[in-house]
Request: fold
Amino acid sequence: MVSRVIPVDPFDLIIFGSTGDLALRKILPALFRRFCAGQWPKDVQIIGAARAAYDRGAFHEIVAESLRRHAPYQCNDAKMLASFLQRVDYVPLDAQSDEGWAQLAAKLTTDRVRAFYFSVGPRLFGPLAEQIHAHNLATQQTRIVVEKPFGHDLESARSLNATLAAHFNEGQIYRIDHYLGKETVQNLMAVRFGNMLFEPLWNSQYVDHIQITVAESVGIDGREEYYDRAGAMRDMMQNHLMQLLCLIAMEPPAKFDPDAVRDEKLKVIRALDPVEPHHIVRGQFEGDGPGYREVVGNPRSKTESYVALKAHLSNWRWAGTPFYLRTGKRLVARSSVINVMFKDAPHSIFGADAGRHANVLSIRLQPNEGITLKVTIKEPGQGGMRLVDVPLDMSFAEALGSENQDPPDAYERLVMDVIRGNQTLFMRGDEVEAAWAWTDPIIAGWQARGDVPKPYDSGSTGPGDAELLMKRDGRRWQGINP
Ligand code: BG6
Reply:
């Protein structure tokens, strides 16, 4: 099946921090792929801005090199690459002084969507917002895009929100959580609210518990300083896993409209109970090469590279159904899966020998995006009635005939949504604050108790205590399979 491309109107996109890792690895390749897909009109303008004193040609070389690495398939077409670069410009500019701003202003087009992408550290959000205003660059059609980390705690997130709100209204602010741009994450909503099959069972009466796993095999190389201040709780749990939890647990919004969806997500976060200290396991990888503390160069670091916890939602739908969330670095595989574990049938008519079986709906976010429903059937050929579990498996690539295509990257969807002015897949300010309000006491508790993360082997499934967290409840984690 060929995916449908909905063209967008002409736009100017200005990327602050355009020589940084995120811009070169994610944003520019995503733009290039959308360009190759034929989604843009001719006169689009991408302007890189950063402190480095490059000229247009030098910036083109950097961009081309990064596109060859991160969008190799599209780069086979040299004409396409050249045509894309014609639309890419560069301005040396300093966020904290007036340098470069007049040159930027001179390049901008009037009467069209103008998106400023803040691909810079949060300390520059305020100065950038102020400069945009001081130089009269904010028009009616202006949007700003801000990256995570959006704050370090509730207080800093509030202050960032206030800084941005001084210059832009909420409808102009696009806070990225790239997990929301992943195809299968959006599919979560399609599966829940586009089918009659699941929603009637989607509550504590039928669901025993839910597991959300975001396992990574990579470590933290190159980001040691940031990561050692953040840890898995701030880096992954407060944002990506929280967003997945919201989409799994929220009530059906009345429509697929930005505020309707975000209102429901906010209600989920606000319904989260504080997490009991003995319902959290923190871990730090070691062995098989340098351990976490060696990597960050801090022999006494108490930062977690792994966290698993049990969360409860105090609301009508989910009271009594725990949510187990875990994420970590240097684990056995890269695998993000949500498992909805249904309850056993209330009574087995087949007797004790048939065994106990429960349905599991597995939503695989990456890799091999798809959905599997484990159903119970009769074991073929056996005398009597022995039951076995078999998967009803749907790989999206196979089902949609897209095996030979790269799945679209989250940034492709998100950047185009900014241009279209659709905020559904972006976090609202109050959502981010509510997520920090839940996270802060957890982290404060660790600090107050001097909590030290449990070591776990690189390449394993995480610390043994995470297994115990489940075992104590008579449950077990589903495997981490690539
Ligand atoms: C980022 C985190 O937000 O998400 C990283 O800062 C993490 O630590 C990354 O590796 C994971 O993203 P993905 O898309 O590779 O699952």
Summary: The first strand starts at residue 11 and ends at 16. The pocket of 6-O-phosphono-beta-D-glucopyranose is lined by residues 148, 216, 235 (CB under 6 Å). The radius of gyration is 24 Å. Residues 180-409+428-471 form a domain with the Dihydrodipicolinate Reductase; domain 2 fold (CATH 3.30.360.10).
